[in-house]
Amino acid sequence: MTLTHLFDVETLPVGPWRNGGGDTREIACEGSAGPDGGSADFGWRASIATIAADGPFSPFPGVDRTITLLAGEGVHLIADGAGTAGAAALDHRLDHPAVPFAFSGDHALRARLLGDGGPVLVLNIMTRRGRWTADVRRVDAPVPLPAGHAGVLYLLSGRGTNTGPGPALRPGRGRWWTSGAADHAAPLEPGSVALWADIRPV
């Protein structure tokens, strides 16, 4: 059986962004992330980020990213195409909860908070291009964990079954794993809704 690791967003260590625009709670990292996840050593990284103010997003050359709104009114992400590796322009409003948005970390992004400008909370999945790739989706039923894949499950509503050490899942908690097993399923009770990041080697 796959060994999964429990996390709770309320107890994850909090690290401030270097530009003061938010903070990050790291869930898991394959390799070494370094400050703000900026090291070239990580293969994949999962975190919960708070975007607290308008301002720049640090570019991550060679990294693919997927972010999903968890709480708050949303954020407008803009890039003029001046990022690394000839990244094209980008203009996206992340304002629908639990709808993943994938983009290249090569972008030099600016973020503008929507609505009253209050902070937003997002799930952030980053994968090193050419080594790992991720598919993030909203799920409402148990899903098989493919053999050899890593992953993250974050519960949005309902409950999760307890398939490992520690308490059962509730909203704001989740599990992550470094490898999957074809006969094992993500621990969701009927009627529950979660975000599942299937992270697989290239």
UniProtKB/TrEMBL annotation:
It comes from the Bacteria. It holds the Pfam family HutD. InterPro entries: RmlC-like_jellyroll (IPR014710), RmlC_Cupin_sf (IPR011051), Uncharacterised_HutD/Ves (IPR010282). Gene3D superfamilies: Jelly Rolls. CDD domains: cupin_HutD_N. This is HutD family protein.
